[in-house]
Each structure stands twice: as structure tokens, then as C-alpha cells.
Write a structure and sequence with these properties.
Number of strands: 12
Largest sheet: 5 strands, antiparallel
Strand order of the largest sheet: 2-3-1-11-12
Strand content: 15-25%
Shape: flat
Number of helices: 10
Oligomer: single chain
């Protein structure tokens, strides 16, 4: 009965929203989902569901492309159901990422820098961990201080268990947390993440270049358009 209610609710969601963005929840924490739920409140619904139930709901809702996409997945999934343009939605998702301390085995998204600070940690065996990671320290006021700014990992480096543990204690970020998009299904059109990502800076440059070229052409032709005369 519980499964039947879940399928019914998902079917209703898939029927009522033109855009369904499918998420890979493999490394997505509950707090990240909650943050995006708050951000999208009133504009989109975020749901987590078992893939088998979601597939049945998609088929019942007549969303064939969504059902076929789900059948081929082997990861835990979530959904953002909305009428918001999927390209705008992806842009908001990308902008909503936050830097957090890493887990062991993850790769750093940035150069990881430990700043000079009072760690608040009393001296003890942990001093050897600082030493192994070549982080200079001093003892002052009964706590360990980091003596100078130290780069402990470069962008792309894999984070060791020892470094991950220390960065968590120091609350030093190294990886971005956000929502991992598998695809957006707009009606019966499946749009993959690479196609959803808009390079706004490139678009701005292209527009500026196009405007400059058109303006130069108008000047050379002697056409008195307002854009030319105004300058």
C-alpha cells in the first residue's frame, strides 16, 4: 500500500510538470537536498524515490523518455519536477554548489590551503599528523596554532584519509557539494548535462563581438543608425 501511494504521487508529479531533472544521489547528503529544497520552494519539487517505483510512475504518466532513461540507471536517483526552463534550472544548480571539507579518496576541486590559525586542539598525538603533512605548528595558550599558510593539496589531487580527517577538524574546504544532474527530460526530449551547461561569459563575448562587427559595418556603409550616431 505504501508503494502504491508513492507511485501514485510520483505519477501525479510527472504528469503535472513538463520538466523532470533526474539526479544522481550517490554522493548527495541530506543537508544539500534540504538547501536546494528551500532554494526552489514554490518553483520546483524535489523528490527522492526508488528507481523501480519511479519507472512505473513514469510509464503510467505517459513519460516514455523518462521511463527509458530510468531503466538504464544503476545509481540512487532523485528528481526535480518543475515548469522552469531546464537550462535556467541547471544554471541555478551549478551556482548553488558550496565548498566543504573532503572525504578520503575524493579529488580536490581547488588548491587546498590551510591558513594560519588557532586550531583550538590541545597538543598531543595529533601533532605527528601535522608533521607528516608538513604543516608548521607552534603551541600557544595550551592549543596548537598553525604557524603559516600551507598548501596541503593541489587541485585534482586525491585526498588521503589522514588529510581528510585533519581538514574536517579544521573545517578547511576542498570539494564542491551540490546536485549531480544525470539529465533533464523536457516533455519527451532528454537533455544531457553537457548540453544543459551554458557558458554565459562566452555568450557575452560573442554578443559584444557581433555588436562591434555590425557597428563597424554600418559605419563603413554610412548607414545612420542610432547605435552609430549615438557614439
Amino acid at each position: 500500500e505504501k508503494k502504491a501511494r508513492e507511485i501514485e504521487l510520483l505519477e501525479k508529479t510527472f504528469r503535472e510538470n513538463a520538466v523532470v531533472m533526474v539526479l544522481d544521489l550517490t554522493r548527495t547528503s541530506t543537508d544539500v537536498l534540504q538547501r536546494f529544497r528551500s532554494s526552489f520552494r514554490g518553483r520546483a519539487t524535489i523528490r527522492v524515490a526508488k528507481k523501480t517505483l519511479a519507472t512505473i510512475a513514469a510509464e503510467r504518466a505517459g513519460r516514455k523518455a523518462l521511463a527509458e532513461l530510468l531503466k538504464g540507471l544503476k545509481v540512487p536517483v532523485g528528481f526535480i519536477a518543475t515548469d522552469v526552463n531546464p537550462f535556467r534550472l541547471k544554471l541555478e544548480i551549478d551556482r548553488g554548489r558550496i565548498l566543504t571539507p573532503p572525504k578520503a579518496g575524493e579529488k580536490a576541486d581547488i588548491d587546498v590551503v590551510v591558513p594560519p590559525m588557532n586550531t583550538g586542539i590541545p597538543p598531543g598525538p595529533i601533532l605527528s599528523e601535522f608533521g607528516k603533512l608538513r604543516i608548521p605548528t607552534r603551541i600557544e595558550g595550551g592549543t596548537i596554532w598553525i604557524a603559516k599558510e600551507t598548501v596541503v593539496a593541489k587541485k585534482g589531487d586525491e585526498i588521503s584519509p589522514a588529510l581528510a580527517s585533519l581538514l574536517a577538524k579544521l573545517d578547511v574546504p576542498a570539494v564542491y557539494r551540490g546536485l549531480s544532474v544525470i539529465a533533464a527530460v523536457d516533455g519527451e526530449v532528454v537533455i544531457r548535462p553537457d548540453d544543459l551547461t551554458l557558458d554565459l561569459e562566452a555568450f557575452k563575448k560573442d554578443l559584444a563581438s557581433g555588436y562591434a562587427t555590425a557597428r563597424t559595418l554600418l559605419i563603413e556603409l554610412g548607414i545612420p543608425e542610432p547605435e552609430v550616431i549615438g557614439d
